[in-house]
């Protein structure tokens, strides 16, 4: 909503700590669509996209998405080794990072969006839907109608 963000841009910091392979698989279609849509329709200027705590299997997801990203945007992705955040500090000073990343800012929380229990419930519902391929089985329909 802020036009200043469209002009001056923003920096993304993506922490993949705790990411599971199931999440990459589940998000693959969404990642493909979202990547193309964001690149074409987002009125914001993304200065840099820093990725930390990268699991070894993330390469699979990156190989899927990378060809869909323009060379200009691709150059803005910066992957940092998980063991050493000093390369991150070269781009983002610790003053603006949370303590869990060696920073001095207050701890990061998603509480203003949703509680952990709400997020867990949504994630469970999402995976349950994926496990049934988005289709409620006849057995579940019959049980629900009783």
Automatic annotation (TrEMBL):
InterPro entries: CRAL-TRIO_dom (IPR001251), CRAL-TRIO_dom_sf (IPR036865). Transmembrane segments: none annotated. GO terms for cellular component: membrane. Residues 1-109 form the CRAL-TRIO domain. GO terms for molecular function: phosphatidylinositol bisphosphate binding. Pfam families: CRAL_TRIO (PF00650). Coiled coil: none annotated. Gene3D superfamilies: CRAL-TRIO lipid binding domain (3.40.525.10). It comes from the Eukaryota. This is Clavesin-2. It comes from Parasteatoda tepidariorum. The lineage of its organism: Eukaryota, Metazoa, Ecdysozoa, Arthropoda, Chelicerata.
């Amino acid at each position: 909503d802020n036009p200043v963000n469209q002009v001056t841009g923003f920096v993304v910091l993506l922490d993949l700590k705790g990411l599971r392979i199931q999440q990459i698989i589940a998000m693959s279609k969404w990642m493909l669509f979202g990547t193309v849509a964001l690149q074409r329709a987002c009125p914001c200027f993304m200065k840099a996209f820093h990725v930390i705590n990268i699991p070894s299997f993330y390469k699979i997801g990156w190989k899927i998405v990378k060809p869909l990203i323009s060379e200009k945007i691709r150059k803005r992705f910066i992957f940092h080794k998980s063991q050493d955040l000093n390369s991150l500090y070269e781009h983002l000073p610790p003053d603006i990072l949370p303590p869990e990343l060696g920073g001095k800012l207050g701890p990061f929380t998603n509480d203003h969006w949703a509680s952990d229990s709400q997020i867990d419930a949504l994630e469970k519902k999402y995976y349950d839907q994926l496990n049934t391929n988005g289709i409620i089985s006849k057995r579940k329909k019959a049980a629900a109608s009783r």
